[in-house]
Amino acid sequence: MGSRRAWLAAATALCVAAAGDMALAASVLSPGVPAAAAVVSYSAPVHPTHVAHPFDPPSTPYGPGHLGVDLAVLPGASVAAAADGVVAFAGAVAGRGLVVVTHADGVSTEYEPITPSVRAGDRVRRGEVIGTVLGSHRRCRPGRCLHWGAKRNGDYIDPMSLLHPLGPVRLLPWTT
Ligand SMILES: [Zn+2]
Question: Taking CA 149 as the corner, what is the angle to CA 37 and CA 9, rounded to the nearest 5 degrees?
């Protein structure tokens, strides 16, 4: 991917996320200051946290893969927001309940299949319940998996990597 395109996408996403947040907006507008300097703390959306199927990114943009982790749960398990943020989407996609939360560091997290208990636009805190597991996902038995996905500036990342940051997370410039 072109670095310029990635930067534009990141800047656009951050500008949208920064609406109403003067501190973050100021960092976006300051030349030379990484826009994603905000440090966000993450915790797993379900406890205990057992990975049933790991993150498996496709080797080609449209190849097979698994763009998140499946966490083993009991049917009806409560799902918590992994970090403070704003609900960007809460509803059904292809018959499955999905919640997407955007965070101040340019990361968005996705949770499915769940019955949402929040609405788009809601501010949520880390650990706040956003829904309960209901429905089927891939190889899991119905109600036994929460699919947890994460994107950083539009690219899927392993959400488990959010849980063990090696010090403050920094946004480094892409190189071509
Ligand atoms: Zn999955």
Answer: 45
pTM score above 0.70: yes
Token pair 């809601």: residue = 122
CA of 68 to the centre of ligand 1 (A): 6
Name the residue with tokens 């499955």.
Answer: 96
Asked if 54 contacts 156 with a C-beta cutoff of 8 angstroms, the reply is no
Angle at 172 between CA 122 and CA 109, to 5 degrees: 25
Residues near 120 by Cβ (< 8 Å), separated by ≥ 6?
Answer: 87, 88, 89, 90, 91
Neighbours of ion ligand 1 (CB under 5 A): 68, 70, 147
Give dist(CA 23, CA 21) in Å, integer: 6
Domains of the chain plus CATH, in order, are 1-35 (no CATH), 51-163 (2.70.70.10)
Distance separating alpha carbons of residues 145 and 114, to the nearest angstrom: 10
- Give residue-wise pLDDT tens across range 60-82: 878 889 999 999 999 899 999 99
Supply 76's token pair.
Answer: 């009806």
